[in-house]
Amino acid sequence: MAAKTKKAIVDVKKQFEKIAEQFQTFQILNEEGEVVNEAAMPDLTDDQLKELMRRMVYTRILDQRSISLNRQGRLGFYAPTAGQEASQIASHFALEKEDFVLPGYRDVPQLIWHGLPLYQAFLFSRGHFHGNQFPEDMNALSPQIIIGAQYVQTAGVALGIKKRGEKSVAITYTGDGGASQGDFYEGINFAGAFKAPAIFIVQNNRFAISTPVEKQSAARTIAQKAVAAGIPGIQVDGMDALAVYAAVREARERAVNGEGPTLIETLTFRYGPHTMAGDDPTRYRAKEEENEWEKKDPLVRFRKFLEAKGIWNEEEENKAIEQAKEDIKEAIKKADEYPKQKVTDLMNNMYETMPYNLQEQYEIYTEKESK
Ligand SMILES: Cc1ncc(C[n+]2csc(CCOP(=O)(O)OP(=O)(O)O)c2C)c(N)n1
Ligand SMILES: [Mg+2]
């Protein structure tokens, strides 16, 4: 008897094709700044569009200045942001003041636009505790250094918002590397199960320090990981400010309407090194790849769009640049003048009640610092 050819139970090819079909990259502006998806155009006034551009230009300047201040030894920890402006600034632009932001270490710009005074961002970079003392009316946590931990915290913050019956959301950011962490899955799963008003953003800048995203996961997209948590997921062109804005705005609407969280993957690129601590990108990525991504630049693309609409020009651009430079100069001066951090400041900031085993040290330092 001839052996029967067994039909596979899982049609793997078909399953993967279906997923690929569902997770196409969402785009509104192409690389030339032309609208390719009129139906998805967000409802933004000319003034709002200009404000979004102004913030992206400002943030690019802040990045350039922060890098040079770091090289002069005037800043401490710094993770460059150039290339990621659409992903960071346009996603934040879709929020409201009452929303709660849980950033990663690269997401200081979102904190600044959420109300963190610039001099405090500089103090944070220097490891000064005052950099983490946010204004009372600013709903945010400090930048998370533990990869992925903010995803679990966001599920909790969002559940809190829901239990209080507030009409706001908790938004968090991690990277492509972060999407491999246990905390990532726990966070999206929990928020999904409790329909918590959360927005989970993965800024896929293609590298986790030197590890390329291809080595990070067998999944074709990070967005599709939403399926396992039973929540909506979308992959967005992260160099397209309008697409990022529209995706986050829609996710926010769903969240405040009680429809639960969304996972948003933004495809982006960091032009600079991972941090200023000394990694050399030429050792792990090709120049051609960098050139390819620079052609997709979020500022160039959005500028072209605004210029074609007749609402942006060199004068507007220069105004934004000058404003940024002036603010940075003032803020770094204020950071320099701020009282130096004392050991007892650090201890007081860490503990509400000093643990008994630190009491003696605390007294020694109080004595030393009084001289
Ligand atoms: C739990 C944990 N593991 C490792 C590190 C060290 N680390 C710092 S940044 C980083 C890479 C993260 O890459 P990605 O999530 O893609 O974010 P990106 O820096 O690209 O924005 C790693 C492994 C850490 N901070 N926390
Ligand atoms: Mg990354």
Automatic annotation (TrEMBL):
It is an enzyme of class 1 (oxidoreductase). It holds the Pfam family E1_dh. Residues 311-341 form a coiled coil. It catalyses: N(6)-[(R)-lipoyl]-L-lysyl-[protein] + pyruvate + H(+) = N(6)-[(R)-S(8)-acetyldihydrolipoyl]-L-lysyl-[protein] + CO2. Its cofactor is thiamine diphosphate. The keyword Membrane does not apply. Its EC number is 1.2.4.1. Residues 53-343 form the Dehydrogenase E1 component domain. Keywords: Coiled coil, Oxidoreductase, Pyruvate, Thiamine pyrophosphate. The pyruvate dehydrogenase complex catalyzes the overall conversion of pyruvate to acetyl-CoA and CO(2). It contains multiple copies of three enzymatic components: pyruvate dehydrogenase (E1), dihydrolipoamide acetyltransferase (E2) and lipoamide dehydrogenase (E3). Heterodimer of an alpha and a beta chain. This is Pyruvate dehydrogenase E1 component subunit alpha. It comes from Bacillus songklensis. The lineage of its organism: Bacteria, Bacillati, Bacillota, Bacilli, Bacillales. The gene is pdhA.
